[in-house]
Amino acid sequence: MKNNQQESGFTLIEVILALGLTAMLLGLLSTSVFIVAEDWNRNSDVLDESLDEALAILQIDRSLHGAFPHSFTDEETLSRQIYFIGQDDYLSWVSTVSPQRTAGLTTWELYSIDEEGTFLTMVPAYSDDPTERLQRAEPILLFEDYIAEFSYLYEDLDETKIWTDEWEGRELLSLPLAVHIRFEPIEERKEIVEVLARIRNNEHRSIQPNMAEQNSL
Fold first, then answer.
1. Hey, how many other C-beta atoms are within 10 angstroms of the C-beta on 75?
2. Would you kindly state where each structural domain of the chain is located, as residue ranges?
3. 137, 142, 147, 149: CA torsion to nearest 10
4. Model-level pTM?
5. What is the pLDDT of residues 94-120, one digit of tens each?
6. Do the beta carbons of residue 143 and residue 127 sit within 8 Å?
């Protein structure tokens, strides 16, 4: 007797449905991989930006800790002066710290431009006034979308510590005890960044500070 057994197999419709489901699953998988990759790249960019800002903040902090009472002779009065220009929106000082690890002293300059950010200029500090070299140098945009505000710490006659928004080394013949920098974000989504650096070497060895000028602050 012959067995009436039916041969099993896939119909054309079943094959088409299987191929369609496979294509849909592969599409969903590739989309998920793309989303994850985009998210990773976006987070990596944010991380790189945060690391760059953190390193820049660290360099500024180290530079202020290494601020030096750089002296030079004024060509008009022939008097010795200390280089340090501190205002509420501008700061320039001489430091023993250099990001390039070059020998000698380095002059740093920080200032902000509205809607652009905070700029940094650096030039070598020789035995003269570095102002002209700063004016000729090309600044770099250090913190985009951040505006810097500066304040300076000094000690009053009664040993009270007072913060002021101005410090002129040429008149005071010394550096402040500390510098506070507040980086205000232009965009609300970013957080405020602050630097509080104590200046270790705020007085020159031979030039006495002008206490009368400091008391008038």
1. 8
2. 51-215
3. -70
4. 0.75
5. 999 887 666 789 999 999 998 899 999
6. no
